[in-house]
Specification:
By secondary structure, the protein is an alpha+beta fold. It contains 6 helices and 5 strands; from the N terminus they run αβαβαβαββαα. The protein folds into 2 domains: 124 residues, Alpha-Beta Plaits (2-Layer Sandwich), CATH 3.30.70; 49 residues.
């Protein structure tokens, strides 16, 4: 990597650290290229990214960002997962780490709030933003559905009363 490539890498990583809502730091020793590709695909599917890092360059990129507290985690073969939606990317990384023991979650941060590995696992158990939206929509629709049911009930009752009255009138004429 020449000097210009290093500068471009530092700039790209600095933008990631400035814009991401969450950054998770992992060790990936022992994962195959195919497994890393699978993890990248899964993280991308939830709107995030997964990038193998160069520690010396990442330490430069961390300067003047909310994620400066992550510095001690960048030792050894590290990679980061980052996204705008913290819960979804945490679910993907924690789920992948459960199936692939070679991916070790070191910790992370949501903004300037540092998270230990156990904190990230707890974050992964929370409902995602999409799940919360679905729950809210369901709660908002339930009263409307009940109201429609109540509005339809009197009309149905009138129809049943008229049908019963018609039957009685038909029975009287037959007798």
């Amino acid at each position: 990597m020449d000097r210009a490539e290093k500068a471009a890498f530092v700039d790209a990583m600095h933008r990631i650290f400035d814009q991401a809502a969450v950054v998770l730091v992992t060790h990936y020793t022992g994962l195959t290229v195919a497994q890393l590709g699978d993890l990248r695909t899964q993280v991308r599917s939830v709107g995030g990214g997964f990038k193998v890092t160069k520690n010396r360059l990442v330490l430069r990129a961390l300067e003047a960002t909310p994620y400066e507290g992550l510095r001690p985690l960048f030792t050894g073969p590290t990679a980061i997962a980052f996204a705008d939606e913290p819960v979804a990317v945490a679910k993907v990384v924690v789920g992948f780490a459960k199936t692939q023991s070679h991916l070790v979650l070191l910790g992370g941060a949501v903004g300037s709030h540092l998270l230990a590995a156990d904190d990230v696992k707890a974050l992964a158990t929370l409902p995602s933003l999409d799940e919360l939206r679905g729950t809210i929509v369901g709660l908002l629709q339930a009263p409307a559905q009940r109201l429609v049911g109540l509005m339809q009930a009197p009309g149905g009752q009138i129809a049943r009363v008229l049908a019963a009255h018609a039957e009685q009138a038909g029975e009287r004429e037959a007798a």
